[in-house]
Amino acid sequence: MYVHYLLSDPSSPSSSPVLSCSSGIQADDDLKSMFVGTVMRKIKSRTWKKQRYFRLQEDCMTIWYKSKKAGNTHSTFSVGDVEAVREGHQSEVLLSIADEFPPDRCFTLVFRGRRGNLDLVAESAGEAQSWIKGIRKLIDNLENMGQREKLDQWICDWFKKADKNRDGQMNFKEVQDLLKMMNVDMNESLFDKSQSGTLEDDEFVLFYKMLTQREDVLRVFQEYSGDGQKLTLQDLKDFLREEQLREDGVQQYALKLTERYEPSDTARMLQVMTFDGFLMYLTSPEGSIFNPTMVELYQDMTQPLCHYFISSSHNTYLLEDQIRGHSSVEGYIRALKRGCRCVEVDCWDGPNEEPIVYHGHTFTSKIFFKDVVTVLGNYAFKASQYPVILSIENHCSVEQQKVMAQHLTQILGDKLLKTPLHGKFPIGLPSPEDLKGKILLKGKKIGGLEDSMNGVVDDSLMGEVSDEEETAEFNDDHHRNDSIRHRVKKSKQSLSKELSDCVVYCKSVHFSSFKHSQIHSKFYEISSFTESKARKHIREAGAEFVLHNARQLSRVYPSGLRTDSSNFNPQDMWNAGCQIVALNFQTAGVEMDLNDGLFCQNGHCGYVLKPAFMRNIDERFDPENPQNGGYKPLSLSIQVISGQQLPKVNIKEGSIIDPLVRVEIHGVPLDQAKQETRYIDNNGFNPVWYDTLQFTIHVPELALVRFVVEDYDKTSKNDFVGQFTLPFTCIQPGYRHIHLLSKDGTSIPPSSLFVHVRITKLT
């Protein structure tokens, strides 16, 4: 570990923790050169390239930088905010200056959430490498921290913010400010026993214990501990059986937990667990509400593609809204790195016979189609090896369609699937396992798969180019705004044979009716539905929609009226078995929380196997009436015990949150429910509830559970604090921690909830 606490001289009247790097750092040349600092160019565009002085602070967590000009203010960012470091010309900005600076001097810092990248050019390749390798080491160090170390780090970060005079010590005024920053409202007399206005050494110990104590966990520990000091192997086994409902291999599991989480060598040798070890277990992934075996790839990946929910993005090129938003290849990189497996391009004729991508007839900026394809080739399989579907909304002339086909073939090479697997005519869709490492094109096709395999496709055959998705959407919504309607006139253009030949298993077709599809549809055909059309079909013929989706793929996308890039509720569409539910990944909110929640299982691979009753064409599952068939409802009881280190939402001086927890069930209409705890006054640091919430889950296989923390406000809308969403089927029963995420879906350590979960059958 690079980071730990050092205590100043105990005789000092105001002992306090100071963060520093361990001596092991001395041996690391990359980090030593980062401490010294480096002048690098910060690049924003071809014309904006300015020198900045960058330096790693002593805490090994903060990077400080400022302009070379004297008097300019400095800026900082935390290593914890950096998701990845890309080497070379791996961003739009650095690609635009590729002729000016060689790739070995360039790198990009990619931040978590939706924050923009930081593009840098070092003075030499050696300096660039020092920063690239150094930051990666620091990121690895952070990711390997245990929950207790994250808590220490979090407290230390606040100490630094509160230490206004930067003397590395804390007077009482600074301690009071610190507590307010940390969401604690506490009387000074609780720990200023000497009434000296400063923290004496023993008062510091009391203060630190006050910040880190867990009375709620101690209660559980003492309930199972014979002497209140330790858990014997038998005590721990009793706890695992009775509370965590562990059934198999309990003895081996108890020994494994002791070996892994017990910090005391003596206790480990005696095969007992101290309170510290118990707390470390409960805050670890094994003590999480999310079953760790389901975080890994655990599902059968050999079923036909239509038997999976597929993580899908809408208008992937947009980083903002649908009218004036910025188009960027960065949208594709972000979506693919999140495990998205279906991305979309809107293609239009561009200058110099180069097709462009943007939201047609709007003021969104434009990017080249070939740049999107290049990014797809580079990033498609970094997060997951399973196939990527490229959904093409094609508005190009035949000439530029040929250029598109050329780019796809030349840039993607063998990754692009251009013929059916094994060269044989298939009888059904292949599986994600069969298609590993392959990119599939979804678009219009001349004739059928049979025709192209038999070589009967004539060059003169015509195909309708555009899916005309927006036209359908505007008609559905009875939109009468002529200024927007003019852009969606239906056009029939020729489809180039070259582009048509790139489409194999995902031929876009117009949907007529479920009866027509049952008689005439081919397994390789896919229809797209506007959100309102999909809802109408679910209401009127839910069981038929589920059956349709057991045979072939469906795609649902947001209304054309959502010009702000807002999202619809994807759960409604998953309830009907729709596989490709396309969302605006750039827009945070409950809809993307649900998407992240569903796809955070199964190795984040972007594919989740649908329940058996949605894959079997002999079953008649209707999401509107789920009681038919093998109906097995369950009872879910959640006791919300406590919260830990909840983030501040209001930057107003001295404001402290009044947190409440809401538990939401998202599933079939019968399961949609929410309940909340009472709110706790002025305590975001360690609020305690012990409130129990009860739910009945009618279709557990489709349910998602969302935990939301809000700051209660009696006069206005509550402020969002944090959330965590997971599939009901991935919940571990017993005493569990829930590690909260920000609105952007990124982790906010050490913020968590502590709950007790019980799931029972309803007889």
UniProtKB/TrEMBL annotation:
<feature type="binding site">
    <location>
        <position position="555"/>
    </location>
    <ligand>
        <name>substrate</name>
    </ligand>
</feature>
<dbReference type="InterPro" id="IPR015359">
    <property type="entry name" value="PLC_EF-hand-like"/>
</dbReference>
<feature type="compositionally biased region" description="Basic and acidic residues">
    <location>
        <begin position="475"/>
        <end position="485"/>
    </location>
</feature>
<feature type="binding site">
    <location>
        <position position="658"/>
    </location>
    <ligand>
        <name>Ca(2+) 4</name>
    </ligand>
</feature>
<keyword id="KW-0106">Calcium</keyword>
<dbReference type="InterPro" id="IPR002048">
    <property type="entry name" value="EF_hand_dom"/>
</dbReference>
<feature type="binding site">
    <location>
        <begin position="42"/>
        <end position="69"/>
    </location>
    <ligand>
        <name>substrate</name>
    </ligand>
</feature>
<feature type="region of interest" description="Disordered">
    <location>
        <begin position="469"/>
        <end position="489"/>
    </location>
</feature>
<feature type="binding site">
    <location>
        <position position="444"/>
    </location>
    <ligand>
        <name>substrate</name>
    </ligand>
</feature>
<feature type="binding site">
    <location>
        <position position="682"/>
    </location>
    <ligand>
        <name>Ca(2+) 4</name>
    </ligand>
</feature>
<keyword id="KW-0963">Cytoplasm</keyword>
<keyword id="KW-0443">Lipid metabolism</keyword>
<feature type="binding site">
    <location>
        <position position="346"/>
    </location>
    <ligand>
        <name>Ca(2+) 3</name>
    </ligand>
</feature>
<dbReference type="GO" id="GO:0005886">
    <property type="term" value="C:plasma membrane"/>
</dbReference>
<keyword id="KW-0539">Nucleus</keyword>
<dbReference type="InterPro" id="IPR000008">
    <property type="entry name" value="C2_dom"/>
</dbReference>
<dbReference type="InterPro" id="IPR035892">
    <property type="entry name" value="C2_domain_sf"/>
</dbReference>
<feature type="glycosylation site" description="O-linked (GlcNAc) serine">
    <location>
        <position position="194"/>
    </location>
</feature>
<dbReference type="InterPro" id="IPR001192">
    <property type="entry name" value="PI-PLC_fam"/>
</dbReference>
<keyword id="KW-0378">Hydrolase</keyword>
<feature type="active site">
    <location>
        <position position="314"/>
    </location>
</feature>
<dbReference type="InterPro" id="IPR018247">
    <property type="entry name" value="EF_Hand_1_Ca_BS"/>
</dbReference>
<feature type="domain" description="PI-PLC Y-box">
    <location>
        <begin position="499"/>
        <end position="615"/>
    </location>
</feature>
<feature type="binding site">
    <location>
        <position position="656"/>
    </location>
    <ligand>
        <name>Ca(2+) 4</name>
    </ligand>
</feature>
<keyword id="KW-0325">Glycoprotein</keyword>
<feature type="binding site">
    <location>
        <position position="712"/>
    </location>
    <ligand>
        <name>Ca(2+) 5</name>
    </ligand>
</feature>
<keyword id="KW-0479">Metal-binding</keyword>
<feature type="binding site">
    <location>
        <position position="393"/>
    </location>
    <ligand>
        <name>Ca(2+) 3</name>
    </ligand>
</feature>
<feature type="binding site">
    <location>
        <position position="528"/>
    </location>
    <ligand>
        <name>substrate</name>
    </ligand>
</feature>
<dbReference type="Pfam" id="PF00168">
    <property type="entry name" value="C2"/>
</dbReference>
<dbReference type="GO" id="GO:0004435">
    <property type="term" value="F:phosphatidylinositol-4,5-bisphosphate phospholipase C activity"/>
</dbReference>
<feature type="domain" description="C2">
    <location>
        <begin position="615"/>
        <end position="742"/>
    </location>
</feature>
<dbReference type="GO" id="GO:0005783">
    <property type="term" value="C:endoplasmic reticulum"/>
</dbReference>
<dbReference type="InterPro" id="IPR011992">
    <property type="entry name" value="EF-hand-dom_pair"/>
</dbReference>
<dbReference type="InterPro" id="IPR017946">
    <property type="entry name" value="PLC-like_Pdiesterase_TIM-brl"/>
</dbReference>
<feature type="binding site">
    <location>
        <position position="344"/>
    </location>
    <ligand>
        <name>Ca(2+) 3</name>
    </ligand>
</feature>
<dbReference type="GO" id="GO:0005509">
    <property type="term" value="F:calcium ion binding"/>
</dbReference>
<keyword id="KW-0442">Lipid degradation</keyword>
<feature type="active site">
    <location>
        <position position="359"/>
    </location>
</feature>
<keyword id="KW-0256">Endoplasmic reticulum</keyword>
<dbReference type="Pfam" id="PF00388">
    <property type="entry name" value="PI-PLC-X"/>
</dbReference>
<keyword id="KW-0677">Repeat</keyword>
